[in-house]
Amino acid sequence: MVYDLSLSENVIAEKAVKEGIDNLSNFFEIKFPEIPDIYLVGNRKTINALKGMDTQPWVVGFGKSETRSIYLLHPDKYQSESNHVYSDDYFFTLVKHELCHKFYNQFAGDYRPRWLSEGVCIYTSGQKRKPISKVEWFLKFFQGSEPGIEHVYEEAGLAVKILHDNFGKKKLLEFIKKGSQTKNSDELSVVFEEIYNKKMDYETFNELIKPN
Question: What is the largest distance, in Å, between two alpha-carbon atoms of the chain?
């Protein structure tokens, strides 16, 4: 269900949930046990209270891992409460992105590196990103483990797309599953090399985006 404190319905969010559950069930090859509740939040102050911290203006959606709830800034409040420009397409993919985190958390174990979890959710939700042909160099996405770092979003979706397109979904899911059972980036790197026979570093990803 989608809940709006103004008591209005949001058809876009409802449609995104239905489509997202179907697409993500196929991608992760698992069933989602519960349809999440989506709450449309009216201001930054409420978002901060729900997060328990001051948030940056780019934060317009998040979920709580211990519950099935997803919280999204109300579409009518983007201009006053965020630095995003609202569009129905952006909101649709945002719902799917946050829904993906619920699937990812169910599929994976305790260790969920930010670049990988965010990258998968950006990729599967179809969020806007620069085409592979326009990317010249990966520089930042491995640094996304610290809270509040926005730049992971600039590259992580493309990095996951590269893994998927070059090596297939089966290996990507294997990497997510086995990688989530590790404890840190060093252990994750070992799993990456076992699965992809390549080092988990910028050089590898930069080689993969070069035209054949």
Answer: 53
Question: Three-class SS of residue 39?
Answer: strand
Beta bridge partners of 4: 40
Per-residue pLDDT tens for 180-204? 999 999 999 999 999 999 999 999 9
Radius of gyration of the chain (CA): 17
What is residue 37's predicted lDDT score, i.e. its pLDDT? 86
Query: What is the C-alpha separation between 124 and 88, in angstroms, rounded?
Result: 18
The values of phi and psi at residue 146, to 5°, are: -85, 140
pLDDT value at residue 132? 47
Backbone angles phi, psi at 71, to 5 degrees: -115, 130
Average pLDDT of 202-212? 82
The Cα 32–Cα 25 span in angstroms is 7
DSSP string, 69-125: -EEEE-GGGHHHH-SSPP-HHHHHHHHHHHHHHHHHHHHS-S---HHHHHHHHHHHH
**Residue 19, H or E segment:** helix 11-28
